[in-house]
UniProtKB/TrEMBL annotation:
<dbReference type="InterPro" id="IPR000182">
    <property type="entry name" value="GNAT_dom"/>
</dbReference>
<keyword id="KW-0223">Dioxygenase</keyword>
<protein>
    <submittedName>
        <fullName>Biphenyl 2,3-dioxygenase</fullName>
    </submittedName>
</protein>
<dbReference type="InterPro" id="IPR016181">
    <property type="entry name" value="Acyl_CoA_acyltransferase"/>
</dbReference>
<dbReference type="Pfam" id="PF00583">
    <property type="entry name" value="Acetyltransf_1"/>
</dbReference>
<dbReference type="GO" id="GO:0016747">
    <property type="term" value="F:acyltransferase activity, transferring groups other than amino-acyl groups"/>
</dbReference>
<keyword id="KW-0012">Acyltransferase</keyword>
<dbReference type="GO" id="GO:0051213">
    <property type="term" value="F:dioxygenase activity"/>
</dbReference>
<dbReference type="InterPro" id="IPR050832">
    <property type="entry name" value="Bact_Acetyltransf"/>
</dbReference>
<feature type="domain" description="N-acetyltransferase">
    <location>
        <begin position="1"/>
        <end position="139"/>
    </location>
</feature>
<keyword id="KW-0808">Transferase</keyword>
<keyword id="KW-0560">Oxidoreductase</keyword>
Length: 141
């Protein structure tokens, strides 16, 4: 057995690990419940001006990335992306949403959208914080 360390894993390396993890996880749940999600704002030429990427797994929406170009910031585009993602997630049967963001990014924005801070990881990138937030997408009775 040999331990190899690399700063440049190949696509083959990543695929091998992903397949190994999938084989293990298949004992517990069907990986087909994980569905990618992408919502984009594009200009007339098809260039992306804003977007949200993530996935839905079971009853959870996971927001991975949300970006709005400087030209569109402050115009409610980010809120529209969140609402569209949450609506699509609900149609897929999701009841909850999760996101994480660095302290120099968008915590107040997500809180304005109804997300609640669950915990923060200190010393992220040396002196920042990483914030983890969640939101119920369906009101509990």
């Amino acid at each position: 057995m040999e331990l190899k360390i690399t700063a440049t894993p190949s696509q083959h390396d990543l695929d091998e690990i992903r397949l190994g993890l999938k084989a293990y996880n298949d004992q517990f749940f069907d990986a087909d419940v994980i569905k990618a999600l992408g919502i984009f704002v594009v200009n007339e030429q098809g260039r992306k001006l804003a977007g949200l990427t993530g996935s839905t797994t079971g009853n959870w929406l996971r927001i991975d990335m949300l970006w709005v170009s400087e030209a569109l910031r402050g115009e409610g585009v980010g809120s529209q992306l969140i609402k569209a993602a949450e609506s699509e997630a609900r149609s897929r049967g999701c009841r909850f949403s999760q996101v994480d963001t660095a302290s120099f990014q968008a915590r107040p924005f997500y809180e304005k959208q109804g997300y609640q801070l669950r915990f923060s990881l200190d010393n992220y990138l040396h002196h920042y914080q990483r914030h983890y937030l969640t939101k119920a997408l369906i009101e509990e009775p």
